[in-house]
Predict the 3D structure of the following.
Amino acid sequence: MMKANTFFTPEENDTIAKTIGEVEKKTAGEVAVMIVDESDSYPESQVVFGVLMGGFSALLVADLFFNDSLWIFLPLAAFFAFFFGWLTNKLPLVKRYFIPKARIEGEVEQRAIQAFFEKGLYKTRDNTGVLFFISLLEHKVWILADKGIYHKIPQEILQEYAGGIATGIKEGRAAQTLCQQISKVGEILAEHFPVKEDDINELPDQVMTS
């Protein structure tokens, strides 16, 4: 499974930070990037996959070796259910398959909101923080902006750029696509929130992990 702290190479991290720095020379908007392994542990996927595979495996073993003994089937089913439930965490493709799409969308959005406040992105002087939030397990990206941004740029527009980043991740072009979309969002920010003479860098340019 991909890990947030090693997803981007040191060179890619530097390129992303430089891209953010270039964007912030032209706008009062403050851009930050955060990447996490997953937005939730999704225990229901472990339960469903564990029970399904555990029951099937126990039934097969009991039928082949123990003449369908119920007393053998039950402990085998419990053992296999536990094993396959544990294995789910090692198999992200399987884990995602058993998570409803709406649940994934909701968890990524909520985790992005949590990160926005945990990292203090709401504390910028003009409420112009913008977070590019990447959740690896789900292959999802959420762009979250502070209230100062939303007066000019709706969430729907930001999510169009988030979709482009998600596509880049799936195609193995994560850093390149992220930088491209940060630059594009930066152009919109510069149009609506031009840089001020006393502008200071209020948020870290380096990619944050959790």
User: Anything to note?
Assistant: The mean pLDDT is 90. Residues 43-65 form the longest helix (23 residues). The chain has nine helices and four strands. The two ends are 15 Å apart (CA to CA).
